[in-house]
Each structure stands twice: as C-alpha cells, then as structure tokens.
Please model this.
Amino acid sequence: MDNFQIQTAQNVTIDQNLANYFERAAAFFIDILILLAYLFLVGFIFPLLGASSFAVSMVVTLPLLLYHLVMELAMNGQSVGKAAMKIRVVCVDGSKPKAGHYLIRWCLRLIDISISFGSVASLFILFGGKGQRLGDLAAKTTVISERNRVDFTQTIIMDVPENYQPKYPQVTIFSDEDMRQTKAIYMKAKRQREYHLINKLHQQLMSKMEVQPQEKSLQFVETVLRDYNYYTQR
Model:
C-alpha cells in the first residue's frame, strides 16, 4: 500500500494510505453493476406503465449521469462501490472535500473515464505518485483506503524495534489503563482525521510528564506509546 504525508491545518503531519488501483477498479465495477441493475429495472417496469419515451429517457439518463456526483456528496466522498471497498475521496491536505471539489472530479470523468474508457484515469493513478486521476489533480483530491491495518488497537501494545532508543523515561508515571485510553483515543482520532484530539493528547501528556517535546503532536504521542511499551516490557 502506497502512502503519502499530509500537513493538516492543525500542524499535524500524518500518513495516509492511498487506495490502490485494484481497490478503485473494484469500486468502479461495483458501481457499474448497480447502474446496470437500475437500467434493467427501468427497462422492465416502464414499458408496463406505458410511460412516454421522454420520461423514460430522463429517468434513465439523469441517474446515470449524476450518480457519482450525488453519491459522493451524500456519502462524504464515497459511492456504493467505494463504501464497499472502504475507500474515500479526501483533499490532499487531509480535509473533507467541499461540493466544488466533487464537481470538478465529476466534470473531468468525461475525459478520465467516459471518452477514454478509463485509460487516462488508469495512467494517472498508476504513475502519478499520489493515486490521482486527472479529476483529482484538478480538484486537489485523492482517494484513500480506510481499511484497518493496525493490530491490537484495544491494547497498549505497540511495535518496538530491538534497537529502539526511548526518549521519555517520564512515561513510567502512567498506568496501563492510562496508556490504553491514550492509545484508543489516538487511534480513533487518527483514523477519523480528528487532529484536534491528537493535539489535546499532546498537551495533556506534555503537561503530566513535564517535558517540552520537539516532535509534532502525532509523532510525540506515538513516541510516548512506544516508550511506555519499551519500559514496561523490560
């Protein structure tokens, strides 16, 4: 899984996991199946109702045309396919896209996917560096994976390399329960991009430990968790 770093408005540096090409392709085909099922239902029901050809064309064309725009607006950066694959559209600075971002992506689908049969999007996603198709580049967005790849999220356990050098012996003032709660808040805030919570953790830990860390908020909290594991495992 590729990743890239973003700098948030709260001055937190965080890694994001990019959705890979196959996840995005799978989401696309799930959406295609949904639209095909919709076409089948319309083609079956409307002749029975004796609807006019104009009404049929409107009912068929508009949902097909607007599906991705409407779904991403309504589902916070996801279509049904993206939700199934646990991927989501975000801005490259980590913030939530606004309607204008989704509109730009949707407008450029014509070039990215429709006219080129997906070849333009594929080339940009595979070789662009941040998993961005042409529409993403124009809108300053990308697509990230939200799959949980972290083990032991409900415990205090953090991976500590054998040659790890701790920085804060003051962490021993905390209990296992303190660190369990700290880790739970940290992991949830990181996953949901609630960076203000990470900043609050940073301030609380810094105050209780009476230290002046040089790291930014996310790195400091991670270091405290690893240091605690280092000292309590020995």
